[in-house]
Specification:
Blueprint: E1 2-5, H1 15-19, E2 24-26, E3 33-35, H2 44-53, E4 59-62
Antiparallel strand pairs: 1-4, 2-3
Length: about 60
């Protein structure tokens, strides 16, 4: 599983941070999504949920 983060379409809703704070943050200056680390197998459920909840589609999950 890979995560693609597109800051150019992020609207700063923060659903990623609320759902998986160990993996995502929001930039201090602009409030846009920041991927803190690549997800491991244990993170798969949270990452898939973030991909579903992201209102702008800025976080995309690519299955291997």
């Amino acid at each position: 599983m890979k995560v693609e983060v597109r800051r150019d379409v992020c609207v700063g809703a923060g659903q990623c941070v609320l759902t998986a704070p160990a993996l995502f943050d929001q930039g201090e200056d602009d409030g846009l999504v920041v991927l803190l680390k690549e997800p491991g197998d244990a993170d798969a459920g949270d990452v898939r949920e973030v991909g579903i909840l992201c209102p702008s589609g800025a976080v995309r999950v690519v299955e291997d």
